[in-house]
Specification:
490 residues, alpha/beta, six-stranded mixed beta sheet, six-stranded parallel beta sheet, 15 helices
């Protein structure tokens, strides 16, 4: 009788305070085909969880001001601080690397690394160690379907192949092909170290055929709150925002949904397996299919009594986007406690330039309705979008000041120019007037570094200070009591 193929599956997500969905899906798919799977999770050997956001102190406000500074004399200090923070955030965790090296002593048949672009250095170390032991390494991630990024990563010594595809169903076949030294180019979305590539991977369908994620290897006793991550669909119904890289990633291309029944069955099963009633929806846009949002709100209390959940939505202009006051009130009755959305800016001109599909008035009405319905609200925003003006930032500051009392958390970042997005292509071409300067490609992270002279003016900086003061006043408060178990997650 042949021995079970042995797979070492490494979770590199050291910042999460809940299990990593991609790892759970791969584990379930492999075990369904009788593979022996060992999962290594940073939290399992002492790495502490880190909240994405929390109730802020004045030092957080100072660091945000520095990170977003556009005052010329401060730029060298800002850039140095960004590099230092990036180094500290992305450096390999020595305990994780040491544990992987010990696991390599037992010579697994293959190592699977699920990587985000911040994991370049730790992937380098793991792949080098695996090469010494003669163990093949497959690295998968949502952005490895981007040609420039895959071309940069494929040269890491010890990497057998990069995979930019949804492999929820095909991963057992791919692993067998690696073990048996078969041609990996038979699988779509593969890039080999010599630069050869297979066909582009099509979006995975139907999603109801995917297994329920297996999180049994995660250290549930170490999480502050037991929260199960889940997705009802992939991609985004709108998929037109000029800055969004999610919809060009391997798992974000085209919108596909699971059935309401399949989602509810998984929630019921995961609640039983892990003794929890808390769920985090990781969909890009939970209201892409409004009836999914309504179905969960209506039926979940009967399937998982006492269940509570959070998710992200897009406040678009469809006649029915699932976000009316009636819908939001029903969602609260059905267990929804927090909602996150991309506000981005308080300027209609800038929303239009972004192809956001939203209006300032619609965003304002949504905030009022969600707050009145009893939801905790979180929004994301950024400064420095190409073409942004002093007037745009003034409108953003005005908007935040009006809605301060209705928002629980605001994540306000510097704009990132990400590979393959419409705005990236437009700026890379630089046709017509020069909007950005000092363009520097960064294929390792699938982005472009730049300077934006328009946001370095005195007037822009004054309005930005006002906006950031509002952000701090919002973030220093505790969130609504009903959503506190979800603070820092989304």
């Amino acid at each position: 009788m042949a021995a079970q193929p042995r797979v070492l599956l490494v979770d590199l997500n050291a910042f999460s305070s809940f299990p990593t969905l991609a790892i759970g899906l791969l584990t379930a798919a492999l075990r369904r085909q009788a593979f022996a799977v060992q999962v290594i999770c940073p939290l399992d050997h002492g790495r502490p969880t880190m909240m994405r956001e929390r109730q802020e102190r004045i030092t957080d406000h100072f660091m945000r001001r520095l990170h977003l500074s556009a005052y010329a004399p401060i730029l060298p200090i800002r850039d140095l601080a960004r590099r230092v923070w990036g180094f500290l955030r992305d450096r390999p965790d020595r305990i994780t690397v040491s544990r992987i090296r010990r696991a390599l002593e037992s010579k697994p048949d293959v190592i699977l690394l699920s990587a985000y672009l911040m994991h370049y250095e730790v992937v380098r170390e793991i792949a080098a160690s695996a090469k010494e032991k003669g163990v093949p390494v497959i690295v998968g991630g949502p952005m490895f379907n981007i040609v420039a990024t895959a071309s940069h990563w494929r040269s890491l010594p010890g990497v057998t192949a990069l995979v930019g595809a949804e492999v929820d169903l095909s991963i057992p076949h791919l692993v067998n092909a690696v073990i048996e030294k078969k041609d990996l180019l038979q699988f779509p979305g593969v890039t080999l170290p010599d630069g050869r590539t297979s066909t582009v991977a099509p979006p995975l369908r139907p999603l109801d055929s995917t297994p329920f994620a297996d999180f049994s290897d995660f250290p549930w006793e170490r999480y502050p709150v037991r929260i199960v991550p889940i997705m009802t669909g992939r991609g985004c119904q709108w998929a037109k925002c000029a800055f969004c890289s999610d919809v060009v990633s391997a798992n974000g291309r085209s919108y596909r949904t699971r059935s309401v029944g399949h989602v509810l069955a998984e929630m019921e099963e995961q609640a039983r397996r892990y003794a929890t009633r808390n769920f985090l929806f990781l969909d890009l846009k939970l209201n892409s299919h409004p009836d999914m949002l309504r179905g969960i709100a209506e039926q979940l209390p009967g399937r998982v009594p006492g269940a509570e959940w959070i998710g992200t939505v897009h406040v678009d202009t469809r006649a029915d986007n699932g976000l009316s006051f009636r819908d939001l009130k029903a969602a609260v009755r059905g267990g929804m406690r927090r909602v996150s959305f991309g506000l981005e800016t308080g300027s209609q001109a800038l929303l239009d330039a972004m192809k956001k599909g939203s209006t300032v008035e619609g965003n304002s009405a949504f905030i009022r309705n969600a707050h009145r319905a009893g939801l905790s609200l979180r929004c994301t925003m950024f400064a420095g979008y190409p073409g942004e003006t002093e007037e745009d930032m003034a409108a953003t500051a005005d908007f935040l000041e009006v809605h301060e009392h209705q928002l629980d958390r605001v994540r306000f970042n510097a704009f990132s120019l990400l590979e393959e997005t419409p705005i990236f292509k437009r700026m890379a071409e630089q046709s017509g007037a020069i909007i950005l300067t000092d363009l520097q490609p960064d294929p390792q992270r699938a982005r472009m570094h730049y300077r934006n002279p328009a946001i370095e003016t005195k007037g822009y900086r004054a309005h930005k200070r006002r906006a950031l003061a509002s952000v701090y006043r919002i973030n220093r408060r505790p969130v609504r009591s009903g959503a506190r178990q979800f603070d820092g997650l989304m």
